[in-house]
Specification:
Blueprint lengths: L13 H4 L6 H5 L7 H7 L5 H17 L6 E4 L7 H7 L4 E6 L2 H16 L10 H29 L5 E5 H6 L1 H11 L6 H13 L19 H7 L1 H8 L18 E6 L5
Parallel strand pairs: 2-3
Antiparallel strand pairs: 1-4, 2-4
Helix pairs in contact: 6-7
Length: 266
C-alpha cells in the first residue's frame, strides 16, 4: 500500500472529513452498486454541514498550532463540493494539478485495488470479479469529480486558481512552487527553499517502492478517454495530452485541490 500511497506524518484533511460520513472508500466495498451512501455522496444538496465541521476542526487546530502563513488543504475529494467549500473559505486560493488522464485513471484504479484487496478472499474464484467491481466504482467516482471540476471552473472563470501540470511539478518542483507563491503573492524564504530541497533529497520518487499500473485494468481505451473527457483535456491539458501511441507517456490527470487559507479566517 505504501508504494501506492505513502503515509506521511502530516496527511490530507480528508481524514477528518470522514468524521462527517464523507467517505468514498466505503462505497467501494458495498454489496451493490446503487447503495444509499453512494447516492448521498453524489448528491451535492445539503452538504453545508460537512464544511461547517471542517472549518470548526481547522479553527480548533489553529487555536493551538497556528501556521506562520496559511493552512494547506490537500485532497482531491473537495472537488465534489467546490461551491460549498468556497462558501466556507471565500478567501481560499486554489491550486489544481493536472496529469494525463490515461495514466491517472490507471493509477487511481490500482490504488483502489490495493486498498480493497485485504477485504477479499484470494482463495475464492470470484475475487477477480470483486476487484474489478472496485475498479469500476473508482472510475465512476473519478468521472463524477472530473465533470464537477469542469462545471465549477466554467461557472467561476475568475476564481483565484493556479493550474499546475504534473510533469512540471516532477521536473521542476522548487520552481513550480515558486511560481505558485509568486502568483498568490505569498512570502518566500531561503529557509523554506532549503527545507523543500532537503525533503526532495530524502524522499525521491519510488522510495517506498514502485506502483505499476496500466490502462488495461480500466477497460478503457485512449480514444474512450479523449471522447468522454474532451472538455477537461482542452481546458487543462491542451497539447500536453497528445494521445499519439508513439510518443512517450507523460504522467496523467487526477485533479487535486490544494487550498491555501489564511489561519485567521473565521
Amino acid at each position: 500500500m505504501r508504494a501506492s500511497h505513502p503515509q506521511l506524518p502530516y496527511e490530507e484533511d480528508l481524514y477528518f472529513l470522514y468524521h462527517t460520513g464523507y467517505n468514498w472508500l466505503h462505497t467501494m466495498l458495498a454489496s451493490h452498486d446503487d447503495n444509499e451512501l453512494l447516492m448521498w455522496l453524489e448528491n451535492d444538496i445539503n452538504k453545508k454541514f460537512i464544511y461547517e465541521y471542517h472549518k470548526i476542526f481547522i479553527q480548533m487546530l489553529n487555536s493551538i498550532d497556528a501556521p506562520s502563513s496559511h493552512w494547506l488543504f490537500k485532497t482531491p475529494y473537495h472537488t465534489l463540493y467546490l461551491d460549498e467549500f468556497m462558501h466556507h473559505y471565500p478567501s481560499a486560493m486554489l491550486i489544481m494539478t493536472h496529469r494525463r488522464l490515461d495514466d491517472a485513471l490507471a493509477s487511481m484504479s490500482r490504488s483502489a485495488s490495493v486498498y480493497a484487496a485485504p477485504y477479499f478472499d484470494n482463495n475464492k474464484a470470484d475475487t477477480a470479479i470483486d476487484i474489478q467491481t472496485v475498479v469500476k466504482r473508482i472510475l465512476h467516482l473519478l468521472d463524477t469529480l472530473i465533470h464537477r471540476l469542469v462545471k465549477f471552473r466554467r461557472n467561476h472563470p475568475y476564481i483565484p486558481c493556479f493550474d499546475v501540470q504534473y510533469d512540471d511539478l516532477l521536473a521542476h518542483p522548487i520552481n513550480t512552487v515558486r511560481r505558485i507563491y509568486n502568483h498568490f503573492n505569498l512570502s518566500w524564504s531561503e529557509e523554506f527553499e532549503t527545507t523543500m530541497s532537503a525533503w526532495l533529497r530524502d524522499n525521491p520518487q519510488g522510495k517506498q517502492g514502485r506502483n505499476s499500473y496500466t490502462l488495461d485494468n480500466c477497460e478503457m481505451t485512449l480514444d474512450d478517454i479523449e471522447l468522454r473527457y474532451n472538455e477537461y483535456i482542452s481546458m487543462f491539458l491542451g497539447s500536453q495530452h497528445s494521445l499519439n501511441i508513439g510518443c512517450s507517456m507523460t504522467k496523467s490527470a487526477d485533479s487535486m485541490i490544494h487550498s491555501l487559507e489564511s489561519p485567521s479566517e473565521k
